[in-house]
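tool_call: predict_structure(chain=1)
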Amino acid sequence: MSDTGADDHGRRALLRALAVGGAGTVAGIAAGTAFGSAEASPATPPSALGVASAGPWRPVEGHVDVTWAVNTSQKLVALTFDDGPMPNWTPMVHDILDEEKVKATFFLIGRRLVQHARLIHGRMDRHEAGNHTWAHQDLSHLDHKAAYAQIQRSHAAIAKITGKEPRHLRPPYGNIGGTTLSAAGSLGYGLVLWSIKMLEKTYEKHPAGLVDYIVGNTRPGTILLAHDTGHPDRLVTLRNLATMIHGLRAKGFEFVTVSDLIQAGAAAPQTVPAP
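tool_result:
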């Protein structure tokens, strides 16, 4: 095998390890073995360590899944919203979803949920609640104990206020470190990222272009990232959300929660998607 072929094979193996939750092993290699016989690299930050304890340890499920999209032939798409609930613009999003009878997954910030629980009271029946940590701290910069606290505190608030047990974590900024994986694994979470995000800044002066971009690039199994609060440019998405929904439905897409999408993927024949 040529050097190039070996390099490609190695990269593919690493990507497979990350995708199926083996990032803890990879992080352990990168960290040396702080918990084994070899010396850890002095440049390795604690947040990169993928093993939570020097003693016996394993995630609740024995693995941590990281999902960007789902491999399915069904025309299913998961619409997700981050960073709420907030007065601007969580109620607006719920109004649109109610009008269109669309399911979505809301990745909630625990602290904001406690402060603004009234905004989602009676409005989450159709939707799924996901965990976006307690205070939107970058988990990839925290050690295991601090990352665990961010996830667990938010989990408790979401379960109490919504009556729904969140099972999916979206790490703030989409950043993943070893301790993100170990903390999530300790609480039985899988990680959910996205395959298409709303590009509000790109299309701020051309909202119709954003609609075309989303409708034109969505494929079966896509996870769409939007926000129900934040910078005012996000209104480019929210004011055109119904139009995006209509466009995707015209192409035969059905909106489902992240959990429903993952379940559909698990039931699908396992094939290698086209590049």
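agent: Strands lie at 66-67, 76-82, 105-108, 128-131, 168-169, 190-192, 196-197, 222-227, 254-256. Proceeding to next step.
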